[in-house]
């Protein structure tokens, strides 16, 4: 699955990895987040997020902002340039997927949605089990 996302991301912007695009897309929706949030969601270390985010900072897509309430906490925040890039990628996605679902019947779409939901439920259950085991150790 990650290979598919990574390949798709390369079609949109050859200079962005799938995790970088995820960070950019998340920040476009939520304005700012902590590195800890991304490390937890992506299942990687904080140093990996620092590396990923540094590249986005260098490109001018995001910036680091020190929290006003806790100077030790730093948020990642999307820039105007980052919003433009994310919007262009979204438009490219729409072009690439235009008509993708038009050949499916209503029944086929329902089955597909149901199947994806089963997969998501299974993954979430396994993630919860894994997280619980990690916390117990």
TrEMBL record:
Residues 1-121 form the HTH marR-type domain. Keywords: DNA-binding, Transcription, Transcription regulation. InterPro entries: HTH_MarR-typ, Tscrpt_reg_MarR-type_CS, WH-like_DNA-bd_sf, WH_DNA-bd_sf. Gene3D superfamilies: Winged helix-like DNA-binding domain superfamily/Winged helix DNA-binding domain. SUPFAM superfamilies: Winged helix' DNA-binding domain. The keyword DNA-binding applies. It holds the Pfam family MarR. PANTHER family: TRANSCRIPTIONAL REGULATOR, MARR, TRANSCRIPTIONAL REPRESSOR OF EMRAB OPERON. This is MarR family transcriptional regulator. It comes from Paenibacillus borealis.
């Amino acid at each position: 699955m990650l290979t598919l996302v990574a390949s798709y991301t390369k079609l949109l912007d050859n200079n962005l990895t799938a995790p970088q695009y995820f960070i950019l897309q998340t920040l476009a929706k939520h304005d700012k987040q902590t590195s800890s949030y991304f490390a937890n969601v992506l299942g990687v270390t904080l140093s990996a997020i620092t590396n990923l985010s540094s590249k986005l900072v260098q490109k001018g897509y995001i910036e680091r902002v020190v929290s006003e309430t806790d100077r030790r906490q730093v948020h990642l925040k999307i820039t105007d340039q980052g919003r433009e890039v994310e919007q262009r990628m979204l438009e490219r996605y729409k072009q690439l997927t235009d008509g993708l679902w038009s050949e499916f019947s209503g029944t086929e779409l329902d089955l597909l949605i149901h199947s994806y939901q089963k997969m998501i439920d299974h993954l979430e259950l396994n993630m919860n089990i894994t997280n619980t085991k990690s916390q117990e150790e």
